[in-house]
Specification:
The protein is mainly α. It has 11 helices and 2 strands, in the order E-E-H-H-H-H-H-H-H-H-H-H-H. The chain has a two-stranded antiparallel ribbon.
Length: 307
């Protein structure tokens, strides 16, 4: 199949027809517009490479598996329509009728502060440790063998979910805030090490070479060029991890007994099944999350103005 486009042909004239010596398309291909000859543009359809073929086969397998699962799913006689209506009714109770029976608003505020403290502590510990590991993991600041070892180690840590690290440390420290702090810090170090190292690697190599030419040592390069140039990125990544740790701290309060608002949420939803309290706690968490986002944006804008 040939698509023909006129290129540079005078009005009232006709483009020259391809001659008998024009090469034919290779077997299994068709000209589609990438060849140009005598005012004609012909493209050749590219065959599927291995990557594209693998992607299409993967999507096909996922589609077939999903359809098969939906067709063979055992709903055990559940009325899907009634289940949807009940879920919407629960959402209405949660978001439009929030109130508390087992704790006061002040107690909920104090529990939120405990959860924030847990998130702040783990982010602080993780950020300080990750700063030094990130400097050693940056390819423009450290030997390649060292960067490969550190990046492989933190990649392994990131591959394991945070809740599993908390449960692993709970074997030694017991369920509670101690295991939660260690587990969250462990995962925060791995996350921020990757983020910080990539921020350091984006620094212009000429700046480092210029400082090295003046006789600056490694620490002078780090504190006079690397960190000042990447401060906004470091702040953004740190606040992003702080928000993640805040959400994880809520979950740890329910799953690992780490106290805070997460434990109250667990009791309201699983023990009392009080959707009104679930709604009130949800609004508290959303309000504090919005405040954290506004604070992070404000600090970043001030840092940019100073820079």
């Amino acid at each position: 199949m040939i698509e023909i486009e006129s290129i540079g042909v005078e009005p009232g004239t006709h483009p020259a027809a391809p001659g008998p010596l024009d090469p034919a398309p290779p077997p299994g291909r068709a000209w589609r517009g990438s060849r140009k000859r005598d005012g004609l543009s012909l493209n050749m359809a590219k065959p599927l490479d291995k990557a594209a073929l693998a992607i299409r086969l993967t999507l096909l397998v996922l589609a077939v598996t999903t359809i098969y699962a939906l067709l063979t799913m055992d709903d055990q006689g559940i009325n899907i329509l009634k289940a949807i209506l009940d879920t919407l009714s629960n959402f209405k109770t949660i978001f439009f009728q929030p109130y508390s029976q087992h704790f006061t608003v002040w107690q909920a505020f104090c529990e939120i502060v405990i959860t924030l403290g847990l998130a702040f502590l783990t982010t602080l510990f993780g950020g300080v440790i990750a700063l030094f590991l990130g400097l050693m993991a940056a390819q423009n600041l450290s030997p390649k063998c060292l960067t490969n070892v550190i990046k492989s180690f933190v990649a392994f840590i990131r591959a394991v979910p945070t809740i599993l690290w908390v449960l692993i440390f709970a074997v030694a420290a017991g369920l509670g805030s101690t295991a939660a702090v260690i587990g969250l810090t462990f995962h925060s170090v791995a996350y921020l090490t990757k983020a910080y190292s990539e921020s350091f690697e984006d620094l212009d190599r000429s700046v480092i070479e210029a400082l090295m030419a003046t006789g600056a040592n490694w620490w002078q390069i780090v504190f006079q060029a690397v960190i000042p140039s990447t401060a906004t990125y470091l702040l953004s990544w740190t606040f992003l991890r702080f928000e993640i740790n805040f959400a994880n701290a809520v979950a740890m309060g329910a799953a690992a007994g780490a106290a805070g608002i997460g434990f109250d949420l667990f009791m309201a939803g699983e023990y009392y099944f009080n959707l009104h309290e679930v709604g009130l706690i949800t609004y508290f968490i959303l309000a504090f999350a919005i405040v954290l986002e506004m604070l992070a944006t404000n600090m970043k804008s001030k840092l940019l103005k100073k820079a």
